[in-house]
Amino acid sequence: MGRIAIFTDDPGWHGKMLKLAFAKLGFSSEFVSLTECKLNLQQGLTPVIIPSFEQTLPDAVFVRGVPGGSLEEVVLYLDILHALKLLDIPVYNDGRAIERSVDKAMTSFLLHQAGLPTPLTWVLRNRADAIQVADHELKNGHYLITKPLFGSQGEGIRRIEKMTDLFWLAASNGVYYFQRFVHCAGDGFSDYRVFVIDDQAVAIMRRRGKSWLNNVARGAACEAIDLDPAITELAVQAAKALAMDYAGVDIIQDKAGVYLVIEVNSIPAWKGLESVSHISIASLLAEDLVNRYIKCGASGAIAAVS
């Protein structure tokens, strides 16, 4: 039986669904925290040590979470993902894709370089420059969104609506990340989450928020909608721009009817989406990983030498 390592510190519902999906395909899986993994570069030994896989590295790795920590700790976690890929162990999504997406500045840059519509963005270090940008946007009738460079589930996001909001304006660990606020089409607050696997949109939902921050973790309601090519093709192109195996792509429609990419998630949740789409997303993910990376012979498991 093949074996899969699922990197996560909180398996929860998503981990359970993945474990069941891999089991149906004939693979056992183990939950492992990246905090417990290490590099051991002694001659003749497996260079990457993964708990429960000390004797033989897994056939593949599914990344369900990368822990936070100091810069050095996060770099080590990503080093482990990079090392596994260099050892021909499929990593889904790989370290490079995760780096691109968790760094909002790089995500915005890559979307811009790909020519995809995304809100106007500024990333800067100097406070005086940040205040100048905010002042200019407000005077021209535009709100701004300020976000931490690293973060998820709406944490740390604030909206700058008036000049007095500039008094509390502070950098997130020394960096200011601004996006022009997008007023969504229609009444209320809504956006779209598209789930993309292997360059195909497999599910979509509309999220209706209680405020301008549309996030299921913040209480947004999920609504089923039909796959709309205008939205799904944009989501697929966004996932391609960041070279992802799979992604949760957030898209908003502005008052002029234009769709814009506002977020690309490399470790997306899908419980809310699955509740309205009635598709087993875990099964689709497991099948894609196994069929594209293991059955095709991409795996190169390395046995430990003691």
TrEMBL record:
Residues covered by the ATP-grasp domain: 108-290
Superkingdom of the organism of origin: Bacteria
E.C. designation(s): 6.3.2.33
Keywords: ATP-binding, Ligase, Manganese, Metal-binding, Nucleotide-binding
GO CC terms, sorted: cytoplasm
Primary enzyme class: ligase
Pfam family, one: RimK
Record-given protein name: Tetrahydromethanopterin:alpha-L-glutamate ligase MptN
Gene name as annotated: mptN
